Amino acid sequence: MTNVICFANNKGGSGKSTTCSNLASALGIMGKKILLIDGDMQMNLSLSFFDEDKVLECAGNKNNLYDAVTSGRNLSSYILHTDNDNIDIIVSSFLMSSIELELGPKKHREFILRKLLSAVKESGEYDYILIDAPPTLGIWVTDILCASDKVIIPVEATPWGLFGLANMFDFLKKIREISPETELLGVLITKVDERKNYYKQTRETLDSLDDIHVFKNIIHVDSAVEWAQDASKTVVTYKKSSRSAKEYTALAKEILRS
Asked: What CATH number corresponds to the domain at position 240?
């Protein structure tokens, strides 16, 4: 069966796009077939696989998620192949900044993405569909969550990393009232610098929460990630020997076991 996992947190800079792209790369190397969907107007997920010119070209010729959602067309025709074996993607667009206005008047707006994604999911072509959500809690993120089977919430180990997390949990609880099948897969701690005490504080706080799974594997701060992003690649493919590449691979194995 195809599993749909989204990466969501209402706080920006938590590592959603980086986690989504590198998890896809790790799973792809393990032989899993992955479809990525970039739901964020910042297009960082798209830029992890294509250079800026290619991404802007897709925005210009309407071969992007915004056109798919606003036109109501099947997502299959918007899928692009990447240079990574086993990984395809539907890129985003700057126009996603107005997607809330587009969805507002529509009937059953919470399930538009689920409907558009149904044919791709039911085809069984992909083992995983991974969706990168923007750092907001609104109509569009509601749509993404309702289209997902599982949710991963990346949380950075910084002084403000947990800020607003309670709102995210409350929002997900409300989502489950209209989409009971959407479940929290777990919270992932990112941007860990063990020279500082923030990781310990973050871990202790999260572990104290009832019924919240926290992934065993964590993601450390690593300059190799920035070098990979500059090259429009994931760190898993750009520098396999790096600590972060090994950590994302370990995370992929943990998710496969879940």
From this structure: 3.40.50.300
Structural domain count of the chain: 1
pLDDT in tens, 181-206: 999 999 999 999 988 889 999 999 99
Model's pTM, two decimal places?
0.96
* Rounded CA separation 40/47 (Å): 11
Taking the chain (258 residues) in runs of 10, the rounded mean pLDDT of each run is 96 95 98 98 95 89 92 92 95 93 89 95 96 96 98 94 92 96 97 91 93 96 96 96 97 95
The parent domain of residue 65 ranges over 3-257
Q: What is the DSSP string of the chain?
A: --EEEEE--SSTTSSHHHHHHHHHHHHHHTT--EEEEE--TT-HHHHTTS-HHHHHHHHHTT-SHHHHHHHT--GGGG-EE-SSTTEEEE---GGGGGHHHHHTTSTTGGGHHHHHHHHHHHHT--SEEEEE--S--SHHHHHHHHT-SEEEEEEESSTTTTTTHHHHHHHHHHHHHH-TT-EEEEEEEESB-TTSSHHHHHHHHHHTSTT--B-S---B--HHHHHHHHTTS-HHHH-TTSHHHHHHHHHHHHHHH-
